[in-house]
Amino acid sequence: MTVSRSDVRPIRTEAEVVAARQAVRSWAVEMKFSLIDQTKLVTAASELARNALNYGGGGQMRMEILERSPRQGLRLTFEDQGPGIADVEQALRDGFTTGSGMGLGLGGSRRLVDEFEIHSAPGEGTRVTVVKWR
Amino acid sequence: MAQTAGSTVAEILGADPQALLDSWLQAQLSAPTARTDLITESELRQQSGEFLNLLRNAARGGSLDVQAPEWSQVRELLARVSRGRALQGFSPSETATFVLSLKQPLFARLRSGLAGDPERLMDAVWSATTLLDGLALYTTELFQQSREDVIYRQQQELLELSTPVVKLWEGVVAVPLIGTLDSARTQVVMENLLQRIVETGASMAIIDITGVPTVDTLVAQHLIKTVAAARLMGAECIISGIRPQIAQTIVHLGVELHGASTKATLADAIAMALRVTGWKVVRAEKR
Ligand SMILES: Nc1ncnc2c1ncn2[C@@H]1O[C@H](COP(=O)(O)OP(=O)(O)OP(=O)(O)O)[C@@H](O)[C@H]1O
Ligand SMILES: [Mg+2]
To answer: Could you give phi then psi for residue A133, rounded to 5 degrees?
Structure first.
């Protein structure tokens, strides 16, 4: 498997969250994802970017196009140097929030993509990686 | 040293000011960044003449620190020029050229005036460069600031513009949402909607999200809050414009838009609102 294209977007403001998900949309369109898959990717990106901003104090999103013939995938990695998550299982549970959200972002984005990975520990920041294949 | 350099520059600026103005204008008009389509020659001449006068007066004070109080009039003029140019559609470099293009005629004068004193010439050229670069930077900063002000104002206007609540029928209001639904916009939408519900005594409110590209948990939460508030004012909500891909995504996220009916299209929502409020739409004739 090779990475044929990659880019990094900052996520430090609400406007950059919007810009990041617009970038995801345009890559997904270029890669000829179906409208439904485009929407799923963009929505997952929106959730994870906003978490990085709200809870991680801002961070970045890496975008990568994966080539695994005959398939292509879009991998998104959201990284922040925030406080991290002590209990990842609990954070993934629907309805769990420490903020004023609905507690659906993490669990919901896991259901919107094909691969989902989260690395987080208190004091070490959070990294969430998702992949969607076409 | 700054003392003598300042007075040298003032001296050079003061000798035959008309000729200096002419050669500077010439330099501005022949530069590739000249925008004779945006500014008339007489306007440019007037701005340039005024700038040279103020520059000479300020330099006479001896200090070449553009932040110093003696330079306030120069700064004010530049503020006016760059604000004007930001609005007229100049680019940042076209705006900075106003100041930077003075280098060429000014240096030519310094060179001929101080030909016999290379040391003073070097000092004066260095001071003049530092001075003009400082003023050009200042111009660019103000230009940027003016652009940001314009963008901010447009954003605010758009915020108002983009959330018109229309009365569709007796008892039915509708608000078509377009674009990104952030917290600020949601607040405006919610206020406008509630106000119109009160004004019109509407019992049905349609929120159309056909123009909202991404419905994530935050947007969903904003919608749910708006629906709850409308209900408290006595109006039931219909959320329309839920396209198939949005419906699927919402389901995967696990969001329930409780409290509101949902419809695929605005037409469906209108039909439902009319039915609920007791209206019946019939075609006058068979076609
Ligand atoms: N990047 C992160 N850094 C630290 N904590 C996080 C991060 N992302 C998520 N969390 C924690 O996990 C919880 C659950 O996140 P999730 O996205 O599922 O819900 P939410 O953001 O609270 O609400 P919603 O996403 O529904 O608006 C958050 O409340 C927060 O405590
Ligand atoms: Mg979240």
So the answer is: -100, 150
Query: Cα of A102 to ligand 2 centre, how many Å?
Result: 8
> Which of B136, B159, B182 is the C-terminal boundary of a domain?
B159
Helix (H) or strand (E) holding B114: none
Q: Is B53:B69 a contact under the CB 8 Å cutoff? A: no
Give the tens place of pLDDT for each residue, B5-48: 778 888 888 888 899 999 999 999 988 888 888 888 899 999 99
Please compute Rg for chain A using Cα positions: 14
Instruction: Give the up-direction half-sphere exposure of residue A32: CA atoms within 13 A in the CB hemisphere.
Output: 2
Number of domains in chain A: 1
Domain count for chain B:
2
Burial A7-33 (b: 16+ CB within 10 A, else e): eebebeebebbbbbbbbbbebbeebeb
Query: Does residue B276 register a pLDDT over 70?
Result: yes
Distance CA A38, CA A43 (A): 8
- In angstroms, what is the span from residue B177 Cα to ligand 2's centroid? 23
Whole-prediction pTM: 0.70
Q: Which domain holds residue B238?
A: 166-276
Structure confidence at residue B89 as a pLDDT band (50, 70, 90): confident
List the single residue in B248, B252, B255 with the smallest CB-CB distance to A102.
B255
At A11-28, the pLDDT tens digits run 999 889 999 999 999 999
Of B218, B252, B255, the CB nearest to A40: B252
Bond preceding residue A70 cis, omega within 30 of 0: yes
Domain boundary among B122, B139, B159: B159
